[in-house]
Amino acid sequence: MKKVVLDTNILVSALWSRQGNPFKIVEMFFRKEIYVYYTLEILEEYQEVLSRPTLNFSGDKVINLLREITKSGILSESTVSVIPFLDESDRKFYDTAKRNEAIHITGNKKHYPEEGFIFTPVEFCGTVK
C-alpha cells in the first residue's frame, strides 16, 4: 500500500467535485488503498482552509473527512527542513512526505523542489491501476 501526504488543495478539489483525480485519491483513502500521513500542523491547515465560508463546503462533509483522516491516517512527528520555500506553509507537506518516505500529492507541484516523490494527482493516479 502506498504512503501519501495530501496537500490541502487535493482535499479542496475533492470536496468541490466528485469528478477527477483528487476525488479518486480521497476515495482510495476511504477504501484503505493508501495510507495518508499527516502532522498536527497539516491537520490544522486542513481544518482552517476547509472551514472557510468562501468555500461553502458542507460542515458534515468536512467533519467526516477530517474525522477519517485522524482515525485512519497516520500521525507523524513534525520535522523542519532547511530547503528554501517561497511559501513557508508548503514546507510541512514536503517535510512530512520526506520523513515518512511517502509520496506528496499536490496540485501545485511548481511550489516544491524537483523531487521524485512529489506528484500531481494525474501522475499519482497513473501509478495505481
Could you walk me through the main structural features you see in this protein, from its secondary elements to its overall organization?
This protein has helices spanning 8-16, 21-30, 40-50, 59-72, 91-100, 121-127, and strands at residues 2-6, 34-38, 74-75, 103-105, 118-119. The chain has 6 helices and 5 strands; from the N terminus they run βααβααβαββα. 29% of the residues are buried. Helix 1 (8-16) crosses helix 2. By secondary structure, it is of the alpha/beta class. It has a 5-stranded parallel sheet, with helices on both faces. Helices cover 47% and strands 13% of the residues.
Question: What is this structure, in a nutshell?
Answer:
This protein is α/β, with parallel strands linked by helices and 129 residues long.
Give the CATH architecture: 3-Layer(aba) Sandwich
Number of helical regions: 6
Q: How far apart, in Å, are the first and last alpha carbons?
A: 12 Å
State the order of secondary-structure elements, H for helix, E for strand.
EHHEHHEHEEH
- What is the CATH homologous superfamily assignment? 5'-nuclease
Keywords:
129 residues, alpha/beta, Rossmann fold, five-stranded parallel beta sheet, 6 helices, 47% helix, globular
Summarize the helices and strands and which ones pair or pack.
Layout: E1 2-6, H1 8-16, H2 21-30, E2 34-38, H3 40-50, H4 59-72, E3 74-75, H5 91-100, E4 103-105, E5 118-119, H6 121-127
Parallel strand pairs: 1-2, 1-4, 2-3, 4-5
